[in-house]
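Quick one: structure for this chain?
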Amino acid sequence: MTFVVTENCIKCKYTDCVEVCPVDCFHEGPNFLVIDPEECIDCQLCVPECPVDAIYAEEDLPEDQLCFIQLNADLAQNWPVINTMIPAMDDAEKWSEVRDKLQYLEK
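Got it. Here's what it folds into:
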């Protein structure tokens, strides 16, 4: 099992989760974070840190978020590791309430 960043992170990109990750498995894209499933040690420390509830255990993913398993794995191969907290996106609070954001994901 691994953990997966889902749609709620798109256009928010809160990085509270990266601060607690002991293995640097988070990768940063333009408006989204992903978890590298090869690096994740399933410690669960990131889950309660996410202010928008965007991180799930793979086995607990909602049905409409299953595509994010492969998205995390693929994008982690191309995006740089992030291991320090940075400010969230300027309009993160506004976007935290928006649903169906996959179309806004910047790769």
